[in-house]
Amino acid sequence: MRTLVDPDVYRLELQRLFGRTWSVVGHVTEVPDTGDFVTRYIGEDPVIVVRDRSGDIQVLLNVCQHRGMPVCRSEAGTATQFRCIYHGWVYDEQGKFLGSPVAKQEMHGDILSKSELGLRQAQVGTHAGLIFATLDKQAPPLDEHLGEMGWYLDLFFGISESGLEVVGPPQRFTIRGNWKLAAEQFVGGDGYHALSLHRSQFDLGLLGTTEAITATTAPGMEGLDVSFVHGHAVRCSYLVTMDTSIPALDRLAILPPAGMTPEMVPALGQHLDADRIRVLAEARPVVGGIFPNTALFRFPFLSSDGELAGVVGFHTFVPKGPDAVEFWHWSLVERDAPPEFKEKIRRTTVQTVGTSGQIEQDDGECWPAMTRGARGVYAAEQTLKYQALQGESKPADWPGGGIVSEGFTKDDGQWYWWQRYFDYLTGKV
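Below the sequence we write its predicted structure tokens.
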């Protein structure tokens, strides 16, 4: 457990993991127009996410080339230039150095040319509306990082022609726990903890009945765990049993994907292929994660008025030292959904998995306690256990890729996450 509190391990994580892999830094609808920007983090490196004049998204290191002052101190806004308040160095929205006050004095010197004094640019890519970035110029392409996870990511956030949009700025708060505890729980697809940690949700009838916990098949525990050697993972839950002779789109109209009304379902047939339609109708992805620190959600849930609505959104877990993590949450809605339904989904998402959500309050109780425990002499020597491995048992007709395990949710996804983490820290990746 020493890895949860060791400052030397943490420094390696910043250098060898966050310094080299791809991180999610936002959603494309947060920067829709020229000059729109938000400020985010890759590891502990501050970055500016901005839409440039050509319509492309740039991610720039928010550190002035002169003396290291942030050049942008707002969380969001619109600007095509960023000016450091310390000595007045100015950069454009692509990070190019434009100049500094008293131009004739050339305070930038003559050692480096102006073209060499721009802000560091990240590699940037998007998939299903998510913005990914890496400050490592040698990192492999985003498609290679995602691998077959991209197919499932489309089933989370790319099932409609118009796509999703962010509702409001992301929520965030700091937890006094290690970032890996949050990341591996979600990115690893840990569903088993719901039976004990989220027992109150069963008591309230939101995740099933209390009696079902003791049954052989607890609700939500049976389905497909999809793991990837890249460290990503997805949990696909079996839906309510329906007559399979009913066309898949008709079944989806009975139980639409979270965030959609029955009236929106027919349009899916023009946007998605038969395999994706079938998966949505039979065993749709509900929770998952992208290595190293992003969690994905899209599942049905009761709204505060007792009607079936849904939860749609994502988290990132930004490290703030060995014993602190900043929890970021984004709520998403379908662009074409009716306004009143968008508001219902927003409220349900925030009340369920937002920073004060009834589920995340439970999760946030564990991570600080586990981190504190790891400081002890004997606790530090103890290992974290991932011994309940399902192994691959992929249904013959399952159309998606990955290492697929059918049955009760187990530790496979988290184990692959830790293997990928180990490979980064030891330089194998």
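DSSP finds twelve helices and 19 strands in the chain.
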